[in-house]
Amino acid sequence: MPTSLSRLGAVLTAACLVFTSFSLTSQRSAAALEPFTGYLMAHFTGESADGEQIYLAHSDDGLRWTDLNHGRLVLRSTVGTRGVRDPALVRSPAGDRYWIVATDLRIAGGTSWGDAANRGSTSLVVWESRDLVNWSAPWLINVAGAIPGAGNAWAPEAIYNPATGDHVLYWATNSPRNGVTKHRIWYVRTSDFRSFTAPQLYIERGGTQGLIDTQIIEVPDSVGGYRYYRASADGHITIEAANTILGSWTTLGNLSHLGISNGTGGGNVVEGPMWAQFNGRSEWALWLDQFATGRGYMPITSTNLGSTRNFRTRSDYNLGAARKRHGSVLNLTAAEESRVLGRWGATVPISRIQSYNVQDRYIRHADFDVRIDANVSPAQDAQFRLVPGLADASGSVSFASVNFPGHYLRHYGFDFVLAQDDGTATFAADATFRQVAGLADASWTSFRSFNYPDRYVRHFDHLLRLDPINDAQGRGDATFRVTAG
């Protein structure tokens, strides 16, 4: 896409009320803060059918990334344009709540960039979670609707502001002002990402120079002389610094000395600046999307952000298999990392589910119906990953299809189907089951429904159902063994 419409969203950051160890997003207070052990990246992948949705990746060192959920989408937007770009991960100051805020845009649906910029959605898409694993249904917030002539709302970011006790949520809107129509950065304040103040102009460059991508990070102990640093794609990649989020900012320079620009300076043309601090040390990465050459993100790093001359390029990084487009990085505590990897980690094995009383048959999907069969072909129709339950990650499971990414076994009218996760709480509950001792043989397994706990998964005439179990036949039909795939 043209540089003037550069890829949406740089990652968000947020900050805490105190000055110890910070993640990219809003931080915990010192009393509650645990050491960070890993990193989570939320991103989208491009303009393919499912590319404009939420994907996740994990890193142990902040440089080498592994795609989670086997490279499949994790959250799907069911509101607005039904597509999202530029996801920003936000942690509450207390560390007990998380949000994803994203651009409401789906170019793959046939929208042109011109229409998207001038007649697009003025809303952002939001999800909420208390554990980074179980997410709410998405909702829309019309942050730019009150801006005269607003054509869009792109590339959201958020940072906690201790001066006001809430988050500053900022984004780019294309609108006329003083006779010039271009992208400027606007902001609102919000505590819950549902209600918000009236939009205020935040950043405007001179003349006709537009600005879409900007992102702020808070730095512990004001290393480099400032508490906050801001990177913006405005023709160059401009680095600014401040001691208050909504106060005045000082321009430190740009990256032209590294042969890096956002188009005005030529060289390696990049966009989507994305900050992340390395765990346990005073060093920061600024990730830049090399969109002009299609090479994806590259990091430059610094141990002192007070001067742009302190950045150096890196080659010791790996972004994994999936293409990473504008997103954000969240530093993870050990507990958070364990939950995330338990739900979406690539180590979840492939399994088959064997019938107890017809032992040559296995649960399989066929034309999206679900039954038990012998000699399943193709074999992948009978292969699943038993991931932490979509509605209950503690002690429950969901059956993720191997050959239909993003699809799960769910009950519907007490019949079973293989269906694509639509992101709703109803789907999550219908697709979640608790493993219990086998009803016919305690050394085997039965699966009790999460939302109908008096019912169990069972086969009846070789078709899978969700039924109450009242007799020996039912107990046999509702007993299975999880075997290696």
Describe the structure.
The chain has two domains: about 5-345, Tachylectin-2, Chain A; about 350-485, Trefoil (Acidic Fibroblast Growth Factor, subunit A). Helix content is about 5%, strand content about 40%. It has helices at about 115-120, 335-345, 425-430, 470-475, and strands at about 35-45, 55-60, 65, 85-90, 100-105, 125-130, 140, 155-160, 165-175, 180-190, 200-205, 215-220, 230-235, 235-240, 250-255, 260, 270, 270-275, 285-290, 295-300, 310-315, 325-335, 350-355, 360-365, 370-375, 385-390, 395-400, 405-410, 415-420, 435, 445-450, 455-460, 465, 480-485. The strands form eleven sheets. The protein has a four-stranded antiparallel β-sheet. A four-stranded antiparallel β-sheet has the order 4-5-6-7, with no helix packed on it. Strands 8-9-10-11 form a four-stranded antiparallel β-sheet, with no helix packed on it. The chain is elongated, with a radius of gyration of 24 Å. It starts with about 35 loop residues before the first strand and ends with a strand. About 50% of the residues are buried. Mean pLDDT is about 90; it is low at about 1-30.
